[in-house]
Amino acid sequence: MTQSLTERLQERLATQSAEIERLTTSELRQLGERLKAESETALSSMSASLHAALETAMQPLSGDLSRLRRWGRWWWAALALTWLTMAALTALLLWLWMSPSGWRATWSGTASGTEGIAMYQTFRFEGRSYLLVPEGTMAVTCRRGEEQRPCLVLPMGAAPPVRPQARVDGS
Q: Beta strands of the chain (E only): which ranges?
């Protein structure tokens, strides 16, 4: 049972090839596992350093964002307060403008000279017009530039009197 040299060499080559393949596969597997472990370690350290760098970079921004949020809340409150104030002032001005008490007559230069007189009772007698003024009215002399005229100082809060039956004494 002698084998020829070629057969023995072929057998030996086959066993060696199988052993080389087994060793190569084993070493490649170990090399793959080492590379995987090293990659995971490198990636985790890079991730940690990247996370730390991002956190460091975001710290000033988060402070600015919180200040911006606070400012935004107060801005909306101030805007709403401004709208309410403008609405209230508009309502007040409209109410005063439309009131029959003659608000416009209280501002100098905006009313005619007879508008305030319309609040008081007048009557005509023998072709002349008379104005009824409330009690407490004082006669004074008013001066406008160089011109002097007789004036009446009305009492504060004077309401127009009720229309009385008036008689004029002939003087």
A: 122-125, 128-131, 138-144, 147-153
Q: Which residue has the tokens 């005509």?
A: 124
**Is residue 125 within 8 Å of residue 168, measured between CB atoms?**
yes
Digit-by-digit pLDDT tens for the chain (171 residues) are: 567 888 888 888 888 888 888 889 999 999 999 999 999 999 999 999 999 998 888 888 888 888 888 888 888 889 999 999 999 999 998 888 887 665 544 444 444 455 556 667 788 888 888 888 878 888 888 887 888 888 888 777 655 555 444 454 544
Q: Is 104 helix (H, G, I), strand (E, B) or coil?
A: helix
CA dihedral 116, 121, 126, 128 (to 10 degrees): -10
Tell me which H or E stretch contains 47: helix 5-98
| Overall pTM > 0.90 | no
- Closest by CA to 167, choosing from 119, 132, 117, is 132
In degrees and rounded to multiples of 5, residue 111 shows phi and psi of -125, 160
